[in-house]
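Quick one, T. Sequence first:
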Amino acid sequence: MAESGAFKTLNDKDVVSTRTLLHEAIPITGTIVSGTYADGNIKNPPHGMYQSVYDYPYLSSSANHIFDITVGIGTQSGLTVASQPDKKKNIYNQMAQLLVGYDHTGSIQRFDEDGNIIGGGTKLDSVFVIPFSRLLVKDEIKKGTFQLELGVVSAHDQAGAVFAKRIQITDYSGSDGYFVNSPVGEYGVLYATASAGATVLALNKRYPVGLLYYQAGIAVISGSVFNDSVDGGILHTGIGSTCLLTDSGESGFNAVTASTTQAIATAIRNRIYNVQFNNTTELNSTIYFCRANHQEFNYSTNPTYTNASKIRVKTNSSDEPISYITTIGLYNEQNELMATAKLSEPLKKTPSTEFTIRCRLDY
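Structure tokens:
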């Protein structure tokens, strides 16, 4: 702050930094993902490595990209992949090296269903991946808020009956049970529970089926969610493995062996009943407490404040000087103006009054 060319230095007690987390609910219904626009909001790039989903027909200027779907198959999955084997392997390796990283030998580490990367937990080698748009995720997905419901009826029917039996995938322990040993930040384990249908899961319990990377906004989900217990999955044998594609010749997620990534992505997308989570926007602020003590800033720097060497606002020489604070200026060490803050209305300042004006910079 300056008065007639004089500056007042702000010390450590006058400056404080704060962090505020803002959250927004993001609901993505299955009707948006498939059905409403007759797949006009679905974009299949010519390379065939993933499928993109928009909230409107993607050729529209108002369309927003909301997420992608892709499939990754690790070299140790045990599956013999006939369709796009290299692309599915490359997707797995790309996602794994980004999200899991490398071990001490320089090898890409595999996804682990309980997050215990170094230990001997069950590895996830056949997965589908859903990277959400930064437009939705913002700075991160709020821990403990993620929900994804999938229809798992065995028959291949997208007319509504597919949702008669559903599982719900959540990061229910994410708020206090997340991990921090990922190159991209924090992540939590995704668990599947029955959502609709009495005999959906093999047992009435939560199954670890994937990982959710909060800052990256990426969900990695095991293909076991579409397999029954006979095929090594979590579904009850009474409903059988989900028939993702009628012409694949394979049941459950094993359909990825003979089908393209985009065909599998379409089949998975058509079984999404609902997706919802809260995003997080981190708002960092620096607050400057600009204090005008009673003996300070009682005179204006405005050249019209005086007339013929007399202060205009004083009638008698014994009257108190009066000034009006309208603007706060923040200067650097070289006395160069860096920022200004305008008050909503002028503050009358006299030797008998003091003010503390709070200036906040958000970034």
